[in-house]
Write a structure and sequence with these properties.
Number of helices: 9
Distance between the termini: 93 Å
Largest sheet: 4 strands, antiparallel
Number of strands: 10
Mean pLDDT: 79
Number of domains: 2
Radius of gyration: 37 Å
Strand order of the largest sheet: 3-10-5-8
Helix content: 40-55%
C-alpha cells in the first residue's frame, strides 16, 4: 500500500478526533460536558490574556509585561556585548569555544549519521509505526494512538478533564485588580509591584545599588598599660558598633577575641605604632584580650557605641 505523508496525517487526525472509529455507548461524550469544558477553556484563555502589545489589564500576559518592563534596565549594552561575544561570529571559523564554534564541532562529529538511514532502518521504522487501516498491527504506534483516542473520548474522561481545568482556572486567579490571594495572578501582581516600586530606583547605570544608612556613633577612648601577661584590652559590650586599637609600644601586641591572650593563640599581631579597626561587618562584641612581647608603652583603644 502506498500513500502520501499528507494522507497519512489526515487519516491519523481523523482517527484521533473520531475516537478510533468506535460506535459509542455508555461512555460516549456528552454535549453538557463539552459545553462545560469549552466554558472552562474560555475562562483560562481570558486569564492568560491576549498576545498583543497591550494585553487586558491584570491578566497573566499583562503581569509578565509589567515585570519585563521593570527588568529592562538590566539589559545594558555591556551585558548584550558579553552575550554577543559568547555566541561567536557568523562565519566559517567562529572564535574558539564560543557557542557557534561548539555547534560547528558537534555538526562535524555527527555528519556521518546520515549513512545510518538505510532501507533496513526505514523498513523497521515503518513497521513500528503500523498500517493506516481500521485495525493496525497490535502494539504499533498507530495501534497505541487508536487505544488512546478511544479511551479519552468517554464522558468520564471529560469529567476528569473538567475537574483539572477548573483547578487550573482557580489557581490562575481572576482577571481583576485584586485577584484571590496566593493565585498566580496575585503572585505576579505582588512581584510586579515590588519590581516597579523598588528595583528601577535602585538601578544606576544598569547596576543594582544598595544604600546602607550609617548612623553617628559615640567614641570612647581609653589606654591600657602593656603587660607580658594577658590583660583585658576591651570588656564585652553588646552595644558595640566599632573599635580601633593602636599599639603604642616598642613591642608586638598580640590580640585574642575569645580567650586570654598568648603568643600562640593570638588572632592579630600588632607591630609597634600600628593599629587595627573593626566595623559592623567584622565586629565582635565579646571581651578582647592582649599580651605584649615585652611590657612597655600602652594600647590606645577607641570603642564606638
Amino acid at each position: 500500500m502506498s500513500s502520501s505523508s499528507s494522507d497519512q496525517t489526515n487519516v491519523l487526525l481523523a482517527r484521533l478526533l473520531s475516537g478510533g472509529g468506535g460506535t459509542g455507548g455508555a461512555g460516549t461524550a456528552t454535549s453538557t460536558n463539552q459545553l462545560t469544558q469549552i466554558g472552562l477553556e474560555d475562562s483560562i484563555n481570558n486569564r492568560l490574556g491576549e498576545i498583543q502589545a497591550s494585553p487586558t489589564a491584570n491578566t497573566v500576559l499583562d503581569r509578565l509585561k509589567t515585570i519585563n518592563t521593570s527588568l529592562s534596565p538590566l539589559a545594558t549594552d555591556t551585558v548584550l556585548g558579553q552575550v554577543r561575544d559568547r555566541l561567536g561570529e557568523v562565519q566559517a571559523s567562529p572564535t574558539s569555544n564560543t557557542v557557534l564554534d561548539r555547534l560547528k564541532t558537534i555538526a562535524s562529529s555527527v555528519s556521518g549519521i546520515a549513512s545510518l538511514a538505510t532501507d533496513t532502518v526505514l523498513q523497521a521504522v515503518r513497521d513500528r509505526i503500523g498500517e493506516i487501516q481500521d485495525s493496525p498491527t497490535s502494539n504499533t504506534v498507530l495501534d497505541r494512538l487508536k487505544t488512546i483516542a478511544t479511551t479519552v473520548s468517554t464522558a468520564s474522561k471529560q469529567d476528569s478533564q473538567i475537574t483539572l481545568e477548573t483547578a487550573i482556572r482557580d489557581r490562575l486567579g481572576e482577571v481583576q485588580a485584586s485577584p484571590t490571594a496566593n493565585t498566580v495572578l496575585d503572585r505576579l501582581k505582588s512581584l510586579a509591584t515590588l519590581l516597579s516600586g523598588g528595583l528601577p530606583s535602585a538601578l544606576v547605570g544598569g547596576r543594582l545599588v544598595v544604600n546602607s544608612e550609617v548612623s553617628a556613633r559615640t567614641p570612647t577612648t581609653t589606654q591600657v598599660a602593656s603587660s607580658a601577661s594577658s590583660v583585658t584590652i576591651l570588656a564585652s559590650n553588646s552595644s558595640r558598633h566599632g573599635i580601633t586599637i593602636q599599639n603604642r609600644s616598642s613591642a608586638i601586641l598580640y590580640l585574642s577575641f575569645s580567650t586570654p591572650a598568648t603568643v600562640n593563640n593570638a588572632f592579630i599581631d600588632l607591630s609597634p605604632s600600628s593599629f587595627y579597626s573593626m566595623d559592623n561587618q567584622l565586629l565582635v562584641s565579646g571581651t578582647i584580650y592582649g599580651i605584649w612581647a615585652a611590657a612597655n608603652g600602652t594600647a590606645q583603644v577607641t570603642e564606638y557605641v
